[in-house]
Amino acid sequence: MNTPRLLPVRDLIKDELGNYYDILYVDNQNSKVVLVNAVVKLSSNRILTDDYYREHQHEVLTHEATNILKAKIKNLNEGKVPGDIYSLEELKSDFGFEFVVEGLYDPSPKVN
Q: pTM for this one?
């Protein structure tokens, strides 16, 4: 089996519990991938202004992020957008993984 070419922003990785991860960084030379939980990342992309808080004060904060992720999963599964969803378990033989919750504001994904 060929090692897949993982790309930040485009691809998702799913673990055995059904959690999805965005790829923040791929170091192909060292076979290392840095992941962040996709809902956490999407939730961190919105600044909570007073207006936004008033409009959504009785909603779960991750509601919008979850809807965005569900749409991305659907579009990837239907082939409407480029990219793939990979199984974390299947990739473990090709890559080492690091999971982060910090540094979610890096606007420039990287591939080495």
A: 0.81
User: What confidence tens digit (pLDDT) does each residue in 7-33 have?
Assistant: 998 999 999 999 999 999 999 889 999
Q: What does the DSSP 8-state code read for residue 52?
A: H
DSSP string, 95-110: -EEEE-SS-TT----E
Instruction: Give the residue from 51, 70, 54 showing the smallest Cα distance to 62.
Output: 70
Distance CA 80, CA 93 (A): 29
CA end-to-end span of the chain, whole Å? Answer: 22
- Map residue 112 onto helix, strand or coil: coil
C-alpha to C-alpha distance for 57 and 97, rounded to whole angstroms: 36
Structure tokens at 95: 């890559």
Yes or no: say if 21 and 12 are a contact pair by the CB < 8 Å rule.
yes
User: Distance between CA 69 and CA 26 in Å, rounded?
Assistant: 21
